Amino acid sequence: MCLISHYISAQLLPPSISSVDAQLPHPSVFCAKTTSILVTMRSNSFIAAAAVVAQGVAGLGINCHGDVLCGIAYISGGRLSHLQDVFNKLDDNRKYDNGDDVACIELDSLNYNGKFTSTLCAYIQNSEGDVTGATLKSVFKELQTFGCAICGSVPLHYAKGDDDVNHGELTINLVEELPENCKVNEPCSA
């Protein structure tokens, strides 16, 4: 069974990599058999695909992934920068552990059902140790500099050259409801 594709799906590749494949003059051909897969593509496409596989093995690294509703919140005016005021209020010396909520804001959003409120929160994941408020402020700025519009994750040790979210990450994402230990527009309590 063969599948002919003009380029690898943009959903599988980051924009910087998928744009390379979009420039291919001829389709790439993928033929799968029961025991082997034949892949024919230009060398730059192979390198791009290998980079994606390597990134998946090593962890996503800094990224702008999030809930599918992040796009709706963005179109409705929500921005990552709206969390900046709350991050400015973080105590530099406070220690945060894995699973801790850091900060939350509420965003007014709009979809086909009408107006609704989204809750955008920052929280710690995959961390084996604690992290200070000062470090969280720093990695939040890295996420902004990276260019994330509203949702994303950044490794806690990004400034030290460790781009693996599996070693701890600050995640900004929409959540179903405001966590009990959080107040809107204020740092979350311990």
UniProtKB/TrEMBL annotation:
Q: Which GO terms describe its cellular component?
A: extracellular region
InterPro entries in the record: Killer_tox_Kp4 (IPR015131), Killer_tox_Kp4/SMK (IPR011329)
The record ties this protein, via SUPFAM superfamilies, to: Yeast killer toxins
Q: Which residues form the Killer toxin Kp4 domain?
A: 48-176
Q: What is this protein called?
A: Killer toxin Kp4 domain-containing protein
Please name the source species. Trichoderma guizhouense
